[in-house]
């Protein structure tokens, strides 16, 4: 259990404020996952605005209820990795190609600049970076429907 | 919505939001008018209006591809809107207009007119003297035409004469082979069958026909030889052109392109794939045309001999066409996959071989072998998939033609029994059909080569179609005489979605020496990259002597810059060649002078062949400090107006560094110099020090001023001297 000798609150500006054991106050603290893709729930750090680590959290569950809520909230606020559930249409099999996709965050259109922007995370999972740096995740490409798989295969 | 706007209230800027507060894709809008800021994000039912007042602030930040715009006053956050980085130009505009309007509303003074040159599409300020907006041009994503094979004509064009000659020769030689079966007809009907029926052998006719057969065979041989020779020559030249043009184009692309590519992949594209295309263009394409012609010619002959039999011959044709249609896409897809997988194989090689020292140091040979085996295995699988399809396709075609032949035999025998055709006609007919089907067979096989070439062409055009993100100016401005004054104005830069520089302002006078210091990762090398125009700035501008660097032809501009990189890279070749890299026609005296200035002369003399010694691939036969000194000499040789030293002496010992410093002191006279160093003592000669921290310039001034300020520089400095003191103390205590 991470010792709870700090306080974490949200100020009216919407920023997290961290007060450490020595009474040091840091505004604009952000939670960062150490292994954002491979182990998102293990190893988080609270980092201040200057990029200095204030607190290492082994597991999110170790945190007391209050701060945990805030951290989870803030993570939801910062993290943006839509999970693609269906590829509706691709404009061409040659890149740059515009894809219409359905994601867990609604329908979106992304531009794939090159085949190299599709990164294999493991056998099944893929990470797709669009032309503006938004990253889309495909958890399990075998689980997509057949047309989506067909589209995808042309790029792999 | 117009109800929200007052009478004659004008909208100045707008930002279409594409995300809502919970980061789901949804539309929304932020408007800046001359009175207020109005906004509605996707999930909200109503518009929110914020009339301008003092204390109102709009803040913009981004993280991982998502930006947020926050409206705050002194007490709290009032609202927050989210959007992806695709809308970033609009967001910046909204921000700029908001600040202007708020200030105007608070102070009661009218807004100054905004700068005149603004891109009509995105509203970003235009680079003076350039009509099209660089950021808009980058946004245009026109997928390349899928008819890639036709686009290859551009490479075949210079050889159209030879190609035509080859085509005609192929045609005639094939026609010559058609003569033979035509002679079998009279040979049978006029010679053999009458003889069988008891008439005497007409030897004259026998000699005539046999002579004809021999003649046509010889003709076909001669023509075939000429054709093959011409086409082989053309094929090689075409391939060479394709390769060098692709390479030439590749080298013009910006670092951004190379950052996202794997070396092995590019090597595969330029190497093997271009080869396949040229073989296709010069051999199979012609074969295809001749096949088509031959088939038509044979068809005409067949119809002229017997239309009924001819009609039967064509029965398998629709099936073949249908089959080709089915396999074509699958093959194309399969070959594309093979290409990519093959790139993977070369990538493993290109990755491991330069890093062999690390592999060995950590004893990971087994791991690397298995990585290679995996890539190889994937290659096998991809090939197997295509082969499965292909192995089925080609015998199927053969089967279809055999069946066709069978039908013709059947019908022929029936017709002979009905006395409608002679045996000779049937024999000749069958001989032609043999040829007809062979042609059909080979034509259908071309589909494989076509698709292979098409997939290769797609990947080559991938390179050729790529427009450099550091484009050549449309209306270039030429630098007649370079003074070396550099102005960096409000420069922001991002690698992908990672913001590295924010609002950097810097003015460097001609001939001044600037020391750039800051923590590792603070963006020093990035700033240098921008000044060299390896990348183009995201926002703001960099000017040389008042001219935006985007308006100067790239290579002309770089001639004035001598750059020593943080990671010195030497090319395979001799030391002299490496020093003279930027000026290949440099005299030996110049090379030696530059080497002396960089304090490389003496160590070079110690090498077995002096300046003619080989440096090994990537310069690995030299030590780190030796490599650095050669790259300093290389930069000095081109006598640049602007000298950039990025950690130029980090790998040499302190004494050598001091010596190089001493030499450099003379050399930097009259040149604008930007020197980056972690060892702050290196920069004691600098006219001015610029301290960077996390992408912004935090301090500027001379050493003493900055020390007196007790700011960021002071901390850096004391940390270093303290370290030094501690080390000294430690050493003393040990003694
Ligand atoms: N090609 C790149 N792609 C993505 N990020 C990059 C790239 N090059 C540099 N960065 C990031 O940009 C930031 C600034 O890098 P930069 O090389 O400018 O630092 P620096 O000040 O030169 O550091 P150092 O003193 O260690 O050389 C770093 O955080 C780095 O990780
Ligand atoms: Mg650097």
Summary tags:
heterodimer; A: 156 residues; mainly beta; 3-stranded antiparallel β-sheet; 2 helices; B: 735 residues; alpha+beta; PH-domain like; ABC transporter transmembrane region fold; Rossmann fold; 3 domains; 6-stranded mixed β-sheet; 4-stranded antiparallel β-sheet; binds adenosine-5'-triphosphate; binds magnesium ion; DUF1854 (chain A); DUF1854 domain-containing protein (chain A)
Please write out the topology:
The complex is a heterodimer of chains A (156) and B (735).
Chain A: E1 7-10, E2 16-19, E3 25-33, E4 42-47, E5 53-59, H1 65-78, E6 84-90, E7 97-103, E8 106-112, E9 118-120, E10 126-129, E11 135-138, H2 146-153
Antiparallel strand pairs in A: 1-2, 2-3, 3-4, 4-5, 6-7, 7-8, 9-10, 10-11
Chain B: E1 11-19, E2 25-33, E3 36-40, E4 48-51, E5 57-63, E6 66-72, E7 77-84, H1 88-107, H2 134-139, H3 148-151, H4 153-156, H5 160-196, H6 203-252, H7 255-259, H8 263-305, H9 307-313, H10 316-352, H11 356-361, H12 365-417, H13 423-464, E8 486-495, E9 498-508, E10 513-518, H14 524-531, E11 539-544, E12 547-548, H15 554-558, E13 561-564, H16 575-579, H17 588-597, H18 601-606, H19 624-637, E14 642-646, H20 654-667, E15 672-676, E16 688-693, E17 696-701, H21 703-709, H22 712-734
Parallel strand pairs in B: 10-15, 10-16, 13-14, 14-15
Antiparallel strand pairs in B: 1-2, 2-3, 3-4, 5-6, 6-7, 8-9, 8-11, 11-12, 16-17
Residues 259, 495, 498, 500, 518, 520-526, 566 of chain B line the site of adenosine-5'-triphosphate (ATP).
From the coordinates shown, what is the CATH architecture of the largest domain in chain B? Up-down Bundle
Helical percent range of chain A? 10-25%
How far is the N terminus from the C terminus of chain B? Answer: 82 Å
User: What is the share of helical residues of chain B?
Assistant: 55-70%
Give the strand tally of chain A.
Answer: 11
**What overall geometry of chain A do the principal axes of the alpha carbons give?**
elongated
Rg result of chain A: 19 Å
What proportion strand of chain B?
5-15%
Protein name (chain A): DUF1854 domain-containing protein
Organism (chain A): Azospira oryzae (strain ATCC BAA-33 / DSM 13638 / PS) (Dechlorosoma suillum)
Domain DUF1854 (chain A): 26-155
InterPro entries (chain A): DUF1854
